[in-house]
Every structure is written in C-alpha cells, then in structure tokens.
Amino acid sequence: MPNDFRHPTTHPSAHPHSHHGGLHQGVVGQGYGGGPPPPPGIGGGGIVGGVGVVGLQPATALAFDPQAELLWAGDWKGRVTSFANRELRRYTAFKIQIDPTEGPVQQFLFHEKGVIVLGRRVVHMAMRRGPVLWNIRHEGMKDLRCMSFTSKGASEILVAGWQDTMFVIDVVKGEVTKQVPAPHHYRIMKRGRYICAATETGRIDIVNPTTFKVEKEWQAHQSYINDMDASGDYIVTCGGSYKQQGPGSSSRVPDPYVNVYDLRNMTSIQPMPFPPLAAYVRLHPRMLTTTIVSSQQGQMHVVDIMNPNTTNIRYAHLQASINLFEIASSGRALVIADNDRNIALWGSPSDGIQFTNIGAPITFPEPEEPAPHVDWSVDAPLSTVGMPYYYGTMLFSAWPADIISDAGAPPPQVDPALLATLNKTEFGYFGPNKTGLRRNQIEDTRASKASNKLQAPKFLSERARDGPVTDSHVDQETLAQDAAESLKPEPPPIYGTLEIKYSRFGVDDFDFGFFNKTKYAGLENQIPNSYANSLLQVMNYTPLIRNMALQHVATSCVTDLCLLCELGFVFDMLQKADGLTCHATNLFKTITGRSESQPLDLLEEDLHSHRVSSTTGGAQPGPAPHTRVQNLCRFLMDKTTVEYQSIQPISTALERTLLKLPDPPSPKELTSKLLTTSAVVRINCTNCRTETARSGDAQVIDLIYPPPRTAIRNARAPRTTFSQVLKMGVEKELGTKGWCGNCKRYQSLQLRKTVESVPAVLTINTMIVQENRKLWATPGWLPEEIGVIVSGGQFFCYEGEDLRVHLQRGAHEITVYSLMGMVVNIEHPPPQKPHLVAMVNVAHSEPTAPAESKWHLFNDFSVRRVSSAEALTFNAAWKLPSVLMYQIKQANNKSNMEWRTRLDTSILYKDLGPPPPQQQQQHSDEKKTYRLLDEATERPGPGTIVGLDTEYVSLKDQEIQINSNGEKEMLRPMWLALGRVSVIRARGEREGEAFIDDWITIREPVHDYLTQYSGITAGDLDSRTSKHTLVTLKTAYRKIWTLLNLGVTFLGHGLRQDFRVMNIHVPRAQVIDTAVIYHLSAWRRVLSLSVLSRVVLKQKIQQGQHDSVEDAQAALRLYKKYQEYVDAGLWEREIEQIYLRCKAIGFNAKFEGSGDGIMGVGGMVKRTDTPPVGGAVGAADGVAGPTTPVRKAAVLGTAGSVGMVGSGGFGSGGGGGAFTPTKGGSTGSPRR
C-alpha cells in the first residue's frame, strides 16, 4: 500500500487529446521519498504510471476491479475504459449510452461475470472483455447518482439518485424487480454492515439492506457531503458547511475535519482534524482502522481512527486539483485523478503493484497470423492470390432478380400535427379525415416520392465558365398564406440543415445568393458556435437591443472581450450587408475567451470533427441546441446589462422619449427599464412562518407550465393560455426545501415574487419538456401581441379578445408588447442532429411601419419570407420555439442614428498604451513604422482614401479528402486569423506613410504563421519577444470600423479576403480594389500584386517575405497609374497590353538576373524592410521610383464602382475561409 506517498519530480501523464476517445495509456514516472516514517505495515511508494482522459472534462468515475488486475474509468459522455496491470495497458472500451448528452458515468460495481456501470438514466452491465450482458432503462430513471449491493450479495443492487424512487435490480436476470420510495435524494452509497447513503443536504442515512428502511440518520455536515467511505463497522465522511459572508448571505466551504461513525453502536466517534480542508477520504481495505484523507491540492494524511492525533503526512505534486481518489482492494495501489484530465497510479515498485490479491487472469486477444508472403512478379500465376470459398450457400448478390420480392411494406406515417387536433373519448380519439384517402383506401408506402430537396447550386466559378443559367428553386419571396410546411410530419427542406461546399477557391466560390433573394443578411454556419446565429438575428431585429449595442460600440470602450461591443459590430455589419451573407467569427471568439463560457456549456465542439451527414450519422456533443441557446441567451442578456452600465452611451434620446426618463438617465436606470424585470422574492418558512426578502431581478423569464390536469369524463378540460404560462413564469410561486435561519434546520419554504416593473424588452426561455409539446402545437396558441399590467406586486397578462376589451375600456394602464421574433428548434429524424432557426417579423424594425407583418425564416445563410401562419404554427414532432422576444409596441420602427454623427474617434489619434518594458529596453533603437494622424489637420471623412493591407496566420490547416471518383474534395478551408493590419495615407505631404501598423495578439494556438506569405514569425506575435507593439484584435478592428463609419474609402489589392478575415463588411462605394481594376473578364486569371508591380510599375515587391505596408504602397501606385491611363484615354488599350506582357513573362513576378532589388528609374535599388516614418512612395535609399503627376482625387462613387466586383460589398463572407484568387493571383497562395 503506497501510504509512504512520494511526490514525483515531474507529473507523468499522457497527452490529453486522442482521436480514439476514451482513455489511453500513459507513461511511467519517477518519485522520491521524504517526510516522517509511515505507520507499521505501510511501505514506501511513488508514482508508477499515468493516463490522460480525452475530452474537455476530467474523469467522472474510477474504480479498481477486486477480481481482476484492471483499473476502470468513466467520462462525461458515458464512455468506459479499462486498463490492465501496472503498465496501464488499454484493455477494453465501450459506451453505456448512445446519446452522450445523457450525462456522465457515475459509479462502478463488480460481479464475477462482469462490471456494472451506472449512468444518469441507464444501468449497464458488460463482461470485462466488453460485450454487453444487459442494459436497463426505465422511465423513472431521471437522475441516478449511486448504487450498492443489497443483503443478497452480488446478485442484487439498489440504485438511487436525485429522484424520489429507488430501483432494485436483479443482476443475474438484468431486470428491475422492485421500485422503492426514496426517503431522501442520495448522491453516494457505500456498503458496510448496512447501506450507508449520503444525501444532498449533508445527511447520512443508514439503510437496512433487506427492507430498505432508514435505521439511523446523522447530520454529518451542515451543507453537503463531498466524499464518504464505509467498511466493516466504520463510516468516514468529509464535506462542508455554510459560512456567513455578510448580512443575509452565506457560502459553502469545506470542513477542516473528517467525521467518523461506529455502525456497531450507532454512535459518532471523535472527528479527525484535517486543517488543509478534507475533500476525499478512504478506509484502508486491509487495515480496518486506517484512513487516508486528501485535500484537493494533494496533501494527504494517513490517520488511525483510534488515534487521530498521530498522522503520517504526504504530498502528491500534481499539476491540477484532485478530482477522484480510489484505493485498490489489495491496499498496494492508489489512483488519483485531477481536473486536468490526468490519472496517476501510485504504489511501491519494490513491493509489487497489485490491484487484487486473488485476481483472475486477464485474457488478451491472440495476435493475428501474418498473411503468407506472395512472391509477386510478372510470371506469378493469379491462383497464388487465393479466393474466398463458400460452403453450399449461395450469396444473396448471386440470386436471380425474378425470385426476389418485397416482404411487407413500410407503415404509413401519421402526421403528429393531426394528432394534436383530435378529440379524446372513452374509446380513443376522433377527428376529420385529412389524409386525402377514402375510408376503404390505404396508402401505398412503397411508391417513391419525388424529393423536394433544394439542389446545391453551382459554384460561382462554374457559372462564370458555363454561362448564365436559370435557378431551379422557387423564388424565396413567394409567399404562401397557410402553414402547410409546419404541418408536415417531417421537416421540409426550408428547415433543413445547410452545408457550405468548397471549391479550390474556398468559401468565396459558394453561391450564397442562391439561398437568399431578400435584402436581409444571413449568417454562415461553418464556424464553431454558429448555433448562436438564430439568436443574433432575433436580437438584431429587436430595435431597442440593437440600439443599445450601437450606442455602446460608438463610445471609447476598448475593454477586451466586451460582448456588447462585439454585438454592436455584428449588428452594424448585418445592416450594411444589404442581403449578403456575413459571419460572426469575432463575436464567437469573444464568447470562447470568456471564462464563464465553459462552465455554462456555451461552446460547441469542432463542427467538422462531429459532423452529422445523412448517410453516416453521428451524435450531438454537449447539451441539446435548444438548451445551449437558452443558456447563451441568459449569458448575453446578463453581460449586456453589466457592460452597458460600464460607460455612458453616446445617445439616450430614444429611451428618454419612450420610457419618459430624466435627462440624462444613468446607465443602470436604462438597463433596468430596458431589460430587467424588477421583483422582490419573499421566502416564507412553513414551520415558523418567518419571512425573508431578497432581490429577484431577472433579464430572462423562464416559463413555468401548470401541472397536467386529470381528465374528467364528459367534462371539457380547462384551456391553458400563453398568458397564464407567462404569468406563472414571471411570478414564479413554488415550494422548495431550504435552510431556515430561524429554525436552524432545513424546512419546506414557499417562494413568491412581488413584481415591481417589467422591462421594455421581454426575453423568454420557453423551457419546453415532453409534456408541453402538444400545448405549443395548438393552433394560434402563441399570440403576436400581449398586454401587460403590473399592479399591487402582481403581473397580469392578456391576449386576443381579452386584450382588445381592456384597450377599449381604458380602465388600467396597459402596456402592449409585439412579438419581434423567436429562436425555433428543428428536430430531424435520426441520424441527423437538431439545429436552430430564427423566425423574425422584420416589419417592426423597418424605418417605416409596413401595412402587414413581414415574417422571415433565417436558417443560417438561407433567408426567405414566410406567412404569419407558417411562422406561428408549431409541430409537436419537430418544430418548437426555444427563445421568444417581445418588445413594447410603441418602440416598433424606432431607431436612433445619432451614434454615427457622434462617433468617438479618439482611437485614431493615440497609441493605446506603451510597449512592454522589456520591449522598451531591448528595442529602444527601433523606429516606429507608422506616424499617427494629426487630429488638427488629418481628420478622415467622406472623400478620404486610405491604402489598406493585412497579413494573417493559419489556425487550422485545410482538410481534403479523395472522393469515390478519385478527385480531391475540400471539407474545410484553411482557418485564418488576423496577424497584422497596415493603413497608409493616400494623399497629402505624407502620402504613402502608414498611420496604422498594428500587430495583433492571438489567443488561439497558431498552426502555421505562413511566414513566406505574411512575413510574420512566431516571435512577432509573442509579447515576450516581439519588437512590435502588440494590440488586441478588438483594438485593431475598432480602428478600421471607425474609419468605415466615417465614410473613408479603402484602397488595396484583393481586399475581399482582407475584409473577410477581419470579419467586417465594407459597402462597395467605399472600396477601390486594384485586383478588380486590372482585370479583364475575357481573361479568367486575376493578376497578382507582384506581377502588376513588375509589369506596370517596373518594381519588385514581395521578395522573400511579404510586408503589408509595402503592399499597400504598391496598390496605391497602381491606382495612380490607372488614373493616368484613364485621363489620357488609353485605359482600354493599355489593359490589353498589360495582360499580354504578363503572359509573355509567364505571369511570373521574378526578375531575370541576380540581386534582391527593386527596378526603379535609376536602376536596381536594394530592398529594405518596412520603410521607417518619413519614407515616400516610390522612393528607397534616395532613389526615386516611378512618379505620378499631382492631380485631384477621384470621385469616390466612380472609384468605388470601378474597383468592385458584382453588386455587393466586401468582407461579407464567412470567417477564416480559404485564400481567394483575387489575393494570390497567378503566384499562388498557401496550401494551393
């Protein structure tokens, strides 16, 4: 037994990532001894091996097999893995459940025939070699936590959890034999003389293993029990208690002791002190009074129960806090799991590491016999290869077609929407026949039905090559006036999951216009966390929320990871896109960067590693999409409230007018009126009648449904309305069990909310469970308008005719709310996974109110108009809302655009903080490569042209597969991140000089710095070694966004990709792209910047490494040259000659001869790094390059239209896509 714990010099663990799932073998580590000598009978030991747990969470269950040399481990997705012997050789692995969202593995028990594994909703038994013996599911198994053998030994187990029912299971037969009412909710069970069960409130129940009645109970800890062990006549526990933090508030802290109880006398024994705060405790399996206690930090005490003042202290040096702690039945091995997904095996190598004393031998599979060697040559006969031989049975593939016939037919599908409308009687259900068939006819289910699935469009490059074609799909603005689509038994194509296809040109070649013929922008879905697209669309078309974000983002806020700023950037991009597809990569990065995202399960796993196709299928990792988006909704509303209060918004004119607020209102008062339901929660103890009160403010309302009513014969069931459900959710009257400070014990408490005010925006989580589905499927159940009255601390809600009557009477001040939109969960038949869409009434966000509702379906990048009936009709089988958003009706079609004229521009005229001290010391002689704008003389605005270029790095490489035709098919393009942004002046005395040259810190691991193409090395983006002043992505983005909203025109080469990686949309009137100017449609090739510089400017650029300032200067020179040709009337002839000259040199930018220089007027000029401040365009080392006569600036509208492709803007495409032809040109691009 390794009670002489030795701390390892290095923590041995396997790499925590694996493509095979489960657990994998680790490495052997070294240790050293120290500390006082161990108690008698305990030998020295150290760490002997380790394994790493795959996934985002640590192991949830560990156990040594008492009958074999196996260590068993389970994880959060229901996967079980076993490891053999001290080498921890992987032995078996299997799943106990198909759906990984059902919860983690909770506990192991062992039988001579196999291992019993407990999950949240399943009890599973398998042989040690892996095959399943039985798998039990029961409708009453909702939240299982623990199990124990009963008085019948290993042939029967008792299963309990955080539920009101316990199950008795016959292990031999694999069936539930009895259901027993649970006295309490249990989280831990251990078998000693009795079944010892720990409750969720810190209590221990001693349960009779025969009758399952509670014989004795102790309040072991005031708050909770974290760990417990029982063996023979003793129980040991560790847990926590409440600690007073201030008036009316308390928190739970671990207790500095371990409680001990004697089961023979049913009494408690003197607790064992443990100052480091006890987290885990185990009784030694062979030394009955010896206990091992551990803290979460790894400090361990070996204590004798009979002499608790004498301890043997050891410390385990782990990289993270301890998560699980187990000891083998032999007493010679101990295993520790930490929160960093590692498992360490401890023991004494000199004494021999054994998990069990009488372990059965482990059988491993026999190695496969190697195939006989075949000497393959031209003369070798084919008979040496060998062919399969079938004994007397003809293969099905060899049967003649005339003897094969169909056996039976698939049953007809019953429309779930029809079931919801049927009337119940004593003999069943009845209703009108809507099948279209007569009573004596049956449906021919064998008949093949034509698929109405949308065909994937051609790539844009294919359309350009093949010429114009007519789309085969229906115009998306065609409006049906019924809800025919929502009444179908399965989701129709318009609700289907969409997938972006990639050509060799990346995502830019995908025809998004095929899916969206409206003026409302969609969002791409190939990015992790794009499940939030639907919620972002609903928030964008809620005017008050959009106004809050825009008024905040226009301030001087430079707080990193500010979600409200990122929301403002996204909302502004969607408005400017005018129907083009956008993406929200930067917002999703910000959500990922917030520390709260992981505990709240807001992050999706990699979409491409868990993609579900219609053929292969797959499981949805993490919580269901509707649950995740509801969690995200609470998170965003909470952070919006906090961040809006952090700085005074630009303008509050709209809120002051609508809500009658003083001038100026405080940000806290604004958020209270806009988003927060103000209430006081009153808590009454049913025992002592003591009442306490606390704040019950909430930004999101969770609906509460009335319990199902028992049907009375020949009586009409009372109708439940949406208003009643909303009232229950707002007032939230419920009973619960809690601590009463007056009674000093847990009592039944009654909670009731007193509502003081409701906000201008009601955000509602529907919280639908199986029992409520038919309620939502009731036609017309969700109203488009509701009326709210708050009076006397109560919330009253009216809809339909009741609302109209109250408005006519005018007796009460009633506030009318309009339904702005909703996030809808679409559940597809297996194996497809569910996904989310948005239903939005865009009429309420238009500048002027239209005559009718304009409901639109936003299915990621597919946007189409639907009828009100289609939008508000739900299907219990596959279409149900997850999030609703109502807004006061008087705020409809209202907007405040003052932020555009009062935009804070201070970020353009100052550096945000000096370089780090080590950079100042090491690189004090470095010259800045940019000069800030002069606020007095250089104020950008409409008519200002600036040169722009960016460099980026790769976060993930592209994924390519070979299809069945032997062709390469791109699964995912290279994911790019912004690494450097450079903006130069395009006119004035300092023409060509940079005023922005930002290097961006990147939080994500960088796969490839693309140094050959970007000029960025690993040290450039590392704050410890970089010679550049690094800024955050938000700081660099805000500068470009500020220029954009000041009306500046951006000039560059291949700007589409720059804007795309930057995640910004620039309207076409504000873009001049030399890649488009110097392009002839007759030539499909797009000329690269380096080739144009050689042919047109006679200069050499991009030699060795790229430089964004140099590229922006080259694009500026090309634009000026273009203006010369246009003024002289020679442009049409010259562009033809340019292409011919490029073809003559093979579209190659390399000059003949040696030397690294630039071809100027005076000959070869040596190339330098980024020019220091003061350099001019076309000059280096005093030698002038090609000059351009001074002339007036071009008209912005003309320049923008010349330099644009198509009718849309730039940068509206998805995040982190592949390189485009306009960026790399003829010289190629990374990974091309």
From TrEMBL:
The linker, or PAN3 interaction domain (PID), between the WD40 repeats and the pseudo-UCH domain mediates interaction with PAN3. Binds 2 metal cations per subunit in the catalytic exonuclease domain. Residues 460-474 have a biased composition (Basic and acidic residues). It catalyses: Exonucleolytic cleavage of poly(A) to 5'-AMP. Belongs to the peptidase C19 family. PAN2 subfamily. Its EC number is 3.1.13.4. It holds the Pfam family UCH_1. Positively regulated by the regulatory subunit PAN3. Catalytic subunit of the poly(A)-nuclease (PAN) deadenylation complex, one of two cytoplasmic mRNA deadenylases involved in mRNA turnover. PAN specifically shortens poly(A) tails of RNA and the activity is stimulated by poly(A)-binding protein PAB1. PAN deadenylation is followed by rapid degradation of the shortened mRNA tails by the CCR4-NOT complex. Deadenylated mRNAs are then degraded by two alternative mechanisms, namely exosome-mediated 3'-5' exonucleolytic degradation, or deadenlyation-dependent mRNA decaping and subsequent 5'-3' exonucleolytic degradation by XRN1. This is PAN2-PAN3 deadenylation complex catalytic subunit PAN2. It comes from the Eukaryota. Forms a heterotrimer with an asymmetric homodimer of the regulatory subunit PAN3 to form the poly(A)-nuclease (PAN) deadenylation complex. SUPFAM superfamilies: Cysteine proteinases, Ribonuclease H-like, WD40 repeat-like. InterPro entries: PAN2 (IPR030843), PAN2-PAN3_catalytic_subunit (IPR050785), PAN2_N (IPR048841), PAN2_UCH_dom (IPR028881), Papain-like_cys_pep_sf (IPR038765), Ribonucl_H (IPR013520), RNaseH-like_sf (IPR012337), RNaseH_sf (IPR036397). The gene is PAN2. Residues 521-889 form the USP domain. It is found in: Cytoplasm. Residues 1-44, 446-474, 1213-1232 are annotated as: Disordered. Keywords: Cytoplasm, Exonuclease, Hydrolase, Metal-binding, mRNA processing, Nuclease, WD repeat.
